[in-house]
């Protein structure tokens, strides 16, 4: 299971340009004490704790009082003079896009750090103040941070102490060459580059985790629907294990769209792996036919009950499904539960790979499925409560094929398309930008009616994956 992403950020000169505020406070201290303080020299060497800077201007016995006075003056003189470093907001958003947690670890005292963040609208999940160098490292380690972003040599020390990746930016007093020489793992030109680096780092890390988990498995039978996820898993398994220790199985039943089988066979053949097409009989299950909210449980149970013995027969250690990290977060997935109960592995989910990352990696690997539209089984088109029958499944399959053909004849390129069976009515879901075009085309709609529906309607909201779940009044009971 992929660990939660926790990213730490330094504050001064990493997230905020605090120089004008700090200079103003030291100038106020200078006025009050009558001691000359070169505020511009002060802000040229930001990073170490406040007491370290005070020691440059005051005798040791006065430092505690100076620090206390500085902090008392700080809110009125500094907060409104400080701006965000360009890219700060985007850096936080980049972490959260990956489901991560953001912590700020700074030498500044915590109350002032929080006031800066609140004033600038930058929300951190946690703020740790009064920490420097190794102290930052201990705070990062205690929170399982794997990355620390900072601008100072002390931030590099903190990252190393925590065994975290040190990402350095030259927005403070230290240049890029010195940051590299000090041992920063990554030196970015500026903070604005962080989201791009993070995307690449996480994808690379998750692909490495996937490869290792597949190698540890030793051999797998991939439950291969022909979709983008299971196709990527199959290709990854071949890369990790070689085609001799990998096989693919596409279950043949009334719920498989006819157009899916040939491309699946070709994909497996291109990888040089054996492709099996066992029959499954989910239609014999009353729970499947009843089409309540847990229909997918019975379908997946039948699939794994078929593939498990096949894997054993082939001498393969595991059956692996293409479940990804987004599927696990979606919440309502009774099919995942059925597969888990039967010992199926989920390498993509365990590596933390999302749908978007799978498509990006597939594109880089040159897989034809990288931009293939989502293609859930035909039973997902039947409204809950309507009994699943071979005739209903065949009608949906025919309607979707006819609709695609009609759009093609009219020169319309479509990515996502569904024909939902809501009784005697076919509800068409299509790419949002095509809704009006399809609604106004009698030829296109007649193609759907010809499949055996009495009426047809176009959903004005466009295509939505899993839209049938919106009709469930109590999905929790089916988890």
Automatic annotation (TrEMBL):
Listed SUPFAM superfamilies: Adenine nucleotide alpha hydrolases-like (SSF52402), HAD-like (SSF56784)
Q: Which UniProt keywords apply?
A: Transferase
Q: Where is the NAD/GMP synthase domain?
A: 210-282
GO MF assignments: transferase activity
Keyword hit for Phosphoprotein: no
Q: Which InterPro entries match?
A: HAD-like_sf, HAD_2, HAD_sf, LarE, NAD/GMP_synthase, Ni-pincer_cofactor_biosynth, PGP-like_dom2, Rossmann-like_a/b/a_fold
Name the UniProt record assigns to this protein: ATP-dependent sacrificial sulfur transferase LarE
